[in-house]
Design brief:
heterodimer, A: about 750 residues, alpha+beta, six-stranded antiparallel β-sheet, about 45% helix, B: about 100 residues, alpha/beta, Transcription Regulator spoIIAA, 4 helices
């Protein structure tokens, strides 16, 4: 901006300079010419006065000379009148010459012939023989006539110039003629010769006056030009005719000229061009210098002013605005150098304040919404503390700490039916609201698929295909999903790109449960996930987590890491899931200290409390009795069941299975057996007729032997031998459950 | 289950080894059926019997009834804790002659 401004300012100043300079030049040119013409005219006037005076002088001299000559002629005539004879002698005449100061005296008779003369050779000359002399003959006819001639060639000898004056003789008829050598008149005329006067009339320093008669120069400077033709020195006759001032040439130099014809003379005043414009040049030099100084000052001053008043203000405002757009909304624009900037500063500040207010409002609204979103997200996660009841053979704990209000991690666990626990930990790519929305979608989707599908691999395969449909945001999610068969402790699991979980067997150390992982969910359609299987027994603990745990960093940018997680888990005395999660959380906090959490952190721990129940499926035939007994004995004795208890269990098993085999009409029966929380647990299922053995009343065991019936004793024995029995008919199957405490004998 | 029968006139003793349950009680019934009609006094030696179930009780009860009706006597001896418990629970201990 400054550059553009300076450019235009410079153009303007330069324009003004050129304009002013040009106008001054034109004015100065005119002024120079006008002044020169005025001087020339003045000098022409002076010259004219000189010429007039000289001419007048000449006339007077002539008149005086002529009247003097006539007087002298009259004097000679008077002398002749009184003494004609003597006077007529040559000697007298010559004496007389000296007296009257003349050069020649001629006495002419009535015939017009010279009778006596101071010049001998003129005696006898007939005046009528030449026009010059003939003029005097008029006196003979008119004695009152007095003639004074101009100097001219004499009739006797045209090579001689004389001036004559003549009067009539008083003594006789005739003429007295006095002659002068014209030198005298010439001397007098020379005294007043204009040609001598004119060179003194100077115009300016170098200009002057040219006096010309016709086209011949009579007088001028330099004198070398005298006698030349006007055209030869460069003055054109045609231009003189124009009457105005004109440009001519004198001695090869251009001159401004003005000419005037006066008293038959041509007076030309001239001034050399250099002198005409000498004033202008001087003026223009001074003016140029002054203009340069003035305009340069104006340019610098305006530049400086613009810099200080405008550019600096704009720069300051720009700097402030840059800070504001850089995110510092507390920046105040304070350019108070002039009214406009004050107004602009105020405007920007007001706008920023309004923006700040709007942002704060939006932020508080968004904050409130995010808090709600957070509550919704957390409420979507199952509550671990109340999930597992005292009846359950497992204990579970989970936590999610989001980096922002809402996160992309999630954990989930639920029982799709009474016999299974589905649990998972997942990590959506990204964080914040998009991840949270995607997380909710994934969680809901997996949840709904798992309602009807208990194979982890199939759940993930289906979930992947569904997530891939229209996944335009190209988000993905890693999931580790396990399905625990509660009775048996059989764990099937599949992994979609998630971290390997940690598994601790009973009292052993935690180890990574390594297996082949599939691609992340929503990454590519058509992926088939692999399923793995293991069995969780009593006190086995499985720990799932997201990479927010292992990739958490401390102040020195060190990652928390797999090893530290492993050692923290192993150092944990109490392996209750809640304690494990707390322990890792605490260690993670000690590790990261005040470092901001940059990723969501999620953990889930699952512990098995009992050994898994095992299952045997047999034909509902009495032949299978021993197989069932053997199956149960093997399990229970392996779990340390005392012999006595074992036999009581055997009795009960015999009663129940024989009922099924002999009376239910079932084709197939299954028996599940194991130890749970110190109790032997045996459950029979069969597809026979619905029959609740517990509905029959107990036999009277106090009757005498003869009144006794054998029926009903079996179920009665079962009730007595077992600590807990129950029956239900569900899904077309009779389900009979019995449990026996293994620790305290029932008397 | 193994049953060892020792017969000497009216006195018969059956020694049990194993379990007397649904699958083995028919074996006991068959064994008893083989005894001669004059065998009125029968002794069950349960020393090596692990346990018995209601199926066994049923045979014992019917044997007891039959012998009593014939003026004979069913004696049970060497009853272990489990079997004794069963007898107690079912009131058989009141009926049977337990040596």
């Amino acid at each position: 901006m400054k550059r553009i401004f300076q450019k235009w300012l410079f153009i303007f100043v330069l324009g003004a300079f050129v304009f002013t300079w040009g106008v001054s030049f034109v004015l100065q040119t005119r002024e120079g010419e006008r002044s020169a013409v005025e001087q020339i005219q003045l000098r022409l006037g002076d010259a004219k006065v000189e010429v007039a005076r000289n001419s007048n002088n000449l006339l007077n001299i002539k008149i005086l000379t002529n009247s003097d000559a006539v007087a002298k002629a009259r004097c000679v005539a008077e002398i002749l009148h009184y003494a004609p004879a003597d006077v007529l002698s040559v000697e007298n005449l010559r004496r007389l010459l000296g007296v009257i100061n003349a050069d020649e005296i001629d006495i002419i008779d009535s015939n017009g012939v010279i009778r006596a003369s101071t010049v001998d050779k003129y005696v006898g000359y007939n005046m009528d023989s030449a026009s010059q002399s003939r003029e005097f003959l008029a006196i003979l006819g008119n004695p009152g006539l007095e003639i004074a001639q101009s100097p001219q060639a004499i009739g006797f000898d045209s090579g001689v110039t004389m001036q004559y004056a003549g009067v009539a003789r008083l003594d006789a008829k005739g003429i007295v003629q006095i002659g002068y050598v014209p030198r005298r008149l010439q001397d007098a005329m020379d005294m007043a010769d204009i040609a001598k006067v004119v060179p003194t009339l100077r115009i300016g320093r170098q200009g002057g006056i040219i006096l010309a008669s016709g086209d011949t120069i009579l007088s001028c400077l330099p004198l070398s030009n005298v006698g030349k033709k006007l055209i030869d020195v460069g003055i054109d006759d045609d231009e003189i005719a124009s009457k105005g001032p004109f440009w001519g040439e004198v001695s090869g130099e251009a001159c401004l000229c003005s000419a005037e014809d006066y008293l038959g003379l041509r007076i030309i005043g001239w001034m050399p061009r250099s002198e005409v414009y000498a004033g202008r040049q001087e003026w223009m030099l001074t003016l140029t210098f002054c203009l340069l100084v003035i305009f340069a000052s104006v340019f610098l001053l305006i530049s400086k002013l613009v810099q200080n008043v405008v550019i600096k203000g704009i720069d300051d405002i720009n700097a402030s605005v840059a800070r504001i757009t850089g995110g510092d909304l507390d920046e105040l624009v304070q350019v108070m150098t002039n009214k406009e900037f004050v107004s602009l500063s105020y405007g920007i500040n007001t706008m920023v304040n309004a923006l700040k207010k709007a942002i704060a409002e939006a932020k508080s609204r968004i904050d409130a919404e995010l808090q709600v979103a957070k509550a919704i997200q957390h409420s979507a996660l199952p509550e671990a503390a109340t999930f597992a009841s005292g009846e359950d053979d497992f204990d579970i704990a989970a936590e999610m700490f989001t980096a922002k209000e809402v996160g992309g991690d999630f954990y989930d666990f639920f029982r799709p039916d009474a016999g299974h626990l589905v649990f998972m930990v997942a990590d959506v790519s990204g964080k914040g609201i998009p991840a949270a929305l995607f997380m909710m979608k994934c969680k809901t989707l997996i949840n709904s698929i798992a309602e009807t599908e208990l194979s982890p691999a199939k759940i993930l395969t289906e979930a992947n295909n569904r997530l891939c449909e229209g996944n335009e945001v190209e988000m993905f999610v890693t999931v580790w999903l396990g399905v625990l068969e509660l009775e048996s402790g059989r764990l099937t699991y599949a992994n979609a790109g998630h971290n390997f979980p940690l598994l601790a067997r009973s009292d052993c150390y935690f180890e990574y449960l390594r297996h082949t992982s599939g691609l992340v969910l929503a990454g590519m359609e058509g992926i088939k996930y692999k399923e793995f299987e293991t069995r969780l027994g009593r006190a086995d603990v499985l720990f799932l987590y997201t990479d927010g745990v292992t990739e958490a960093i401390d102040g020195a940018q060190n990652a928390y890491g797999d090893e530290r997680l492993l050692s923290v888990l192993n150092a944990q005395q109490d392996r209750k899931p809640a304690e494990l999660v707390k322990g890792v959380t605490r260690d993670l906090q000690n590790f990261t200290k005040n470092e901001p959490q940059f990723d969501d952190v999620t953990m889930l721990a699952l512990r098995c409390l009992g050994d898994g129940l095992e299952k045997l499926v047999v034909d509902a035939k009495i032949e299978c009795h021993d197989a069932v007994t053997e199956f149960i004995e093997k399990i229970l004795s392996a779990r340390g069941c005392p012999d006595k208890s074992l036999m009581e269990v055997d009795i009960a098993v015999d009663e129940i299975f024989s009922n099924i085999a002999q009376y239910s009409g079932a084709s197939e029966a299954s028996v599940v057996c194991g130890v749970r929380k110190g109790r032997a647990v045996i459950r029979f299922e069969d597809d026979g007729r619905p029959y609740d053995p517990l509905s029959a009343s107990d036999p009277d065991v106090t009757l005498a032997a003869g009144e006794r019936e054998a029926g009903g004793l079996g179920v009665f024995l079962v009730k007595k031998m077992m600590d807990r029995v129950s029956y239900e008919y569900k899904d077309g199957r009779n389900r009979f459950l019995m449990e026996k405490n293994l620790t305290v004998d029932k008397a | 289950m193994n049953i060892t029968t020792t017969n000497s006139g009216t006195e018969t003793e059956l020694a049990f080894e194993g379990r007397l349950d649904t699958t083995t009680s028919p074996q006991l019934e068959a064994e008893l059926a083989k005894l001669p009609a004059e065998a009125k006094n029968i002794t069950f030696d349960f020393a090596k019997l692990e346990y018995l179930s209601s199926a066994g009780l049923r045979v014992i009860l019917s044997t007891h009834k039959k012998l009593t009706a014939a003026g004979g006597l069913l004696t049970v001896k060497n009853v272990n804790e489990v079997v004794m418990n069963v007898f107690n629970l079912t009131g058989f201990s009141d009926i049977l002659h337990i040596a």
